[in-house]
Write a structure and sequence with these properties.
By secondary structure, the protein is of the alpha/beta class. It is built from 19 helices and 27 strands. The protein has 5 domains: about 220 residues, no CATH class; about 140 residues, FAD/NAD(P)-binding domain, CATH 3.50.50; about 60 residues, Alpha-Beta Plaits (2-Layer Sandwich); about 70 residues, Alpha-Beta Plaits, CATH 3.30.70.3270; about 60 residues, no CATH class. About 30% of the residues lie in helices and about 25% in strands. A hairpin with a 2-residue loop joins strand 13 and strand 14.
Length: about 600
C-alpha cells in the first residue's frame, strides 16, 4: 500500500510533533519499519520489501450498501434542529424531537427551521436496527410538530431510513462499534464529522466480506442444547446471532475485526482480510529475507492501520522508534490475531510476536487477545522453550509502547524454521506449528495441561454411569465422539475435540467431563475406546440391541410404573423394536388407541 504522505504528516502534526527536517518524512519512517533514521535496521528494511514483492492475494467477495440519503435526526435540543437545517440542503431529512414538545417548543422548532421543507415529529424511538441504507426504526408517541410533503407519517410498522444522526443520551446503539450510516453526536468534533460525512453517504458502496463461515464445523448448538457461543459474545457490532444449531452473520454489520475467527475453536469462522494462508506467506517471506540479511531475534509487531499506525509514526518521529529487530505488520484489526498466527509465526522463524492495542479496541477484544496470547505462551513454555514469546501491549503512549518492546529480551526458539505453508483451516495450521515446535522442543512432552476454556482437550467418561446410549456421539459436531458401528462402543478422536461441552450437556446420565489439554503426536490422531459393553440380546429373537447396562437401567426406572406393572410389559422392554411391535399386535389384552 502506498503511504499517504500528507495524511501521515497530519497525524504527526496533530500529535504535536514538529518534523525536524524534510528528510524525516513519515514515508521514510514507514519504509524503515518505524525506526528512526539514525538506527541501522537493514535486515528489517529487506523484510518489509520482501512482502511488497509477493503476488497480490486472490480477491474476496464484497458486500454492497445502497443509500438514497433519507436521514433521521434524533434529538431533544436546538443542536438537533440546527443539524437538520444544515443537512436538509443536500439530504431528505426528518427531525424527531424525542421529548414531546410543548406548543411553545414546537413553535420555536418551526421558527428555527424557517422556510426549509422537512417534517418534524415529536415522539420517541422504541427500537432501531439495521445499517447504512436500511435502518428500520420503530417509533412511539408520535405527534406532528410540522407537516411536510417530503415524508408522510410512519405507519404502525415504523419507518425506514438510510442514515441516522443521534443526539440521544443514552445512544440508540449502545455497543462499541455502531453500524455504518449511524453517527453518535456527543460534541462539536463528532457533530462536524457527521455533518461532513452524511452528505457523502449517498449512492452505492462496497466493502470486503471479512468473514467466511462453514456451518458444518460450527459447535454452537445441537437439538436445542447450547454449546459454543464465543463468536456471539466477542462481536462488538452485534453482527452475529444464533440461528438454530448454527449462527448467522449480518455482513452489513460486520466491520472486520476478525475476533470471531480468533476465538472460534473449530475454525468454522474464518477471517478473510487477509486469509491466514496469505498472511502466512507474507510472514514466511518477511522472516526469510530478514535472516538472509543477517537479522536475528526477529520480533513481529501486529498493529492496526488507525491509532496503532499513528502511535508507531509518533514513536519514530519523537525518538529512536521501534527497535531494529521489531518488524511491524499492519492488520485491518488486531483482534483477528489468533493462536494459528501466533504459533505459526514462531514456527516460521520469529523469535517473538507482539500485538499492539492502542486504545480503539473494544473491551471484548482485549480479553480475547489476552486469552490467545496466554494460550500460545502456555503451549510453547510447556515444550521447554524459555523466555517470553508472545505479548499483548495495551497502551496509547508512544514511549510506553517502545519501552514494552525493549523489555522483551530474546527467547528460545527452534534453530530451524519450518518450511510449511500456514493453512486457512485453523486447527490444521495450529497442528503443523505445534508439531514443528514439539520436534525441536528442549523438553519434549507427550501432553500438556491447558487452562479452562482452551479449545483442545479430552472427554472423560464415567463408565459406571455411562449406559452407551450414544447421545453424546449424536450431539458432537466435530465427529470427535463416535459409535462402534456394529457393537456397543463409544470411541473418541481427540484431535477433533473442540471442548464445546455439547456432549457433557447432552449426556442424560451426567457421565461426561471435559479435561482441557493438548495431546501430541500419533495418539491425538488415533481413535480410542472410552467405553464398551457386550450387547443385550432380544429375549424373543436373540438379535443384539442396546447394552445390558442400558436395559437394566430402563427396567429399574420403569418397573414401578403402572403401565409396566405386569411381567409381560417388562419383558417387552427386553425385546428389539421389531419383536416389540409383534408382541403388542398379538396380545389381545393390549390397550390400544385403535380400540378406543
Amino acid at each position: 500500500m502506498t503511504p499517504n504522505h500528507d495524511a501521515n504528516g497530519a497525524v504527526l502534526e496533530a500529535a504535536g510533533v514538529r518534523q525536524i527536517a524534510s528528510s524525516a518524512n513519515p514515508a521514510d519512517f514507514e519504509g524503515r519499519g518505524w525506526t528512526a533514521l539514525s538506527v541501522a535496521c537493514e535486515p528489517k528494511i529487506r523484510a518489509i520489501a520482501a512482502v511488497g514483492a509477493l503476488p497480490a492475494p486472490q480477491p474476496i467477495a464484497s458486500v454492497t450498501y445502497q443509500s438514497k440519503g433519507n436521514t433521521l435526526v434524533v434529538g431533544s435540543d436546538e443542536r438537533a434542529v440546527a443539524a437538520a437545517v444544515r443537512l436538509c440542503a443536500s439530504l431528505p431529512v426528518t427531525l424527531l424531537l424525542t421529548s414531546r414538545p410543548s406548543a411553545q417548543a414546537a413553535a420555536l422548532a418551526r421558527a428555527e427551521v424557517g422556510d426549509t421543507d422537512f417534517p418534524i415529529w415529536g415522539g420517541k424511538v422504541g427500537a432501531i436496527r439495521g445499517h447504512l441504507g436500511s435502518f428500520s426504526v420503530t417509533l412511539g408517541d408520535i405527534a406532528v410538530v410540522r407537516d411536510s410533503a417530503v415524508r408522510a407519517m410512519p405507519g404502525s410498522a415504523g419507518a425506514v431510513f438510510d442514515l441516522v444522526l443521534d443526539f440521544s443520551d443514552p445512544p440508540l446503539f449502545g455497543h462499541h462499534q455502531p453500524p455504518q450510516g449511524y453517527w453518535r453526536v456527543t460534541g462539536e468534533d463528532s457533530l462536524a464529522t457527521a455533518l461532513a460525512e452524511a452528505p457523502e453517504a449517498v449512492g452505492e458502496f462496497d466493502k470486503p466480506r471479512f468473514f467466511a463461515y462453514r456451518e458444518n464445523l460450527c459447535a454452537h448448538s445441537r437439538s436445542g442444547i447450547e454449546g459454543c457461543n464465543r463468536c456471539i459474545e466477542v462481536c462488538s457490532t452485534e453482527a452475529i446471532s444464533a440461528d438454530g444449531d448454527h449462527v448467522k452473520v449480518d455482513p452489513h454489520l460486520c466491520m472486520g475485526c476478525g475476533a470471531c475467527a480468533s476465538v472460534c475453536p473449530s475454525g468454522a469462522m474464518g477471517f478473510q482480510f487477509p486469509r491466514v494462508a496469505d498472511r502466512g506467506a507474507q510472514l514466511k517471506a518477511m522472516l526469510s529475507a530478514y535472516r538472509a540479511a543477517g537479522g536475528t531475534d526477529a520480533c513481529l509487531l501486529f498493529h492496526n492501520g488507525t491509532d496503532g499506525r499513528e502511535l508507531l509514526a509518533l514513536c519514530a518521529a519523537t525518538g529512536e522508534g521501534l527497535p531494529a529487530r521489531v518488524i511491524p505488520v499492519e492488520a485491518w484489526h488486531v483482534a483477528s490475531i489468533g493462536i494459528d498466527l501466533l504459533l505459526g509465526a514462531v514456527a516460521l522463524g520469529a523469535n517473538q510476536v507482539a500485538v499492539l492495542a492502542a486504545g480503539s479496541e473494544a473491551p471484548e477484544y482485549s480479553r480475547s487477545l489476552g486469552e490467545q496470547v496466554g494460550l500460545a505462551q502456555s503451549i510453547v513454555s510447556a515444550l521447554g522453550y524459555g523466555g517470553r514469546h508472545f505479548a499483548l501491549i495495551e497502551t496509547g503512549d508512544a514511549k510506553a509502547a517502545v519501552d514494552a518492546l525493549r523489555s522483551m529480551p530474546g527467547s528460545d526458539v527452534p534453530d530451524t524454521p519450518a518450511t510449511f505453508a500456514l493453512s486457512n483451516d485453523k486447527r490444521t495450521a495450529v497442528e503443523f506449528a505445534v508439531e514443528h515446535l514439539a520436534k525441536h522442543a528442549p523438553a519434549p512432552v507427550a501432553q500438556m495441561a491447558l487452562a479452562a476454556g482452551a479449545p483442545y482437550g479430552e472427554v472423560v467418561v464415567d463408565k459406571d454411569r455411562c449406559t452407551l446410549c450414544l447421545a453424546c456421539a449424536g450431539a458432537c459436531p466435530e465427529s470427535a465422539l463416535m459409535d462402534g458401528t456394529e457393537v456397543p462402543m463409544l470411541r473418541f478422536l481427540e484431535r477433533n475435540c473442540v471442548q464445546c461441552g455439547l456432549c457433557e450437556r447432552t449426556c442424560p446420565e451426567d457421565a461426561i467431563m471435559l479435561r482441557p489439554r493438548l495431546l501430541l503426536g500419533a495418539p491425538a490422531r488415533e481413535a480410542r475406546v472410552l467405553n464398551e459393553a457386550l450387547p443385550f440380546h432380544c429375549v424373543s429373537c436373540g438379535k443384539p440391541f442396546g447394552t445390558k447396562q442400558m436395559v437394566d437401567a430402563m427396567l429399574g426406572r420403569l418397573s414401578g410404573h403402572s403401565m409396566f406393572a405386569d411381567e409381560a410389559s417388562l419383558k417387552r422392554l427386553q425385546m428389539c423394536a421389531d419383536c416389540r411391535v409383534v408382541d403388542m399386535m398379538s396380545n389381545k389384552n393390549e390397550v390400544s388407541v385403535l380400540k378406543l
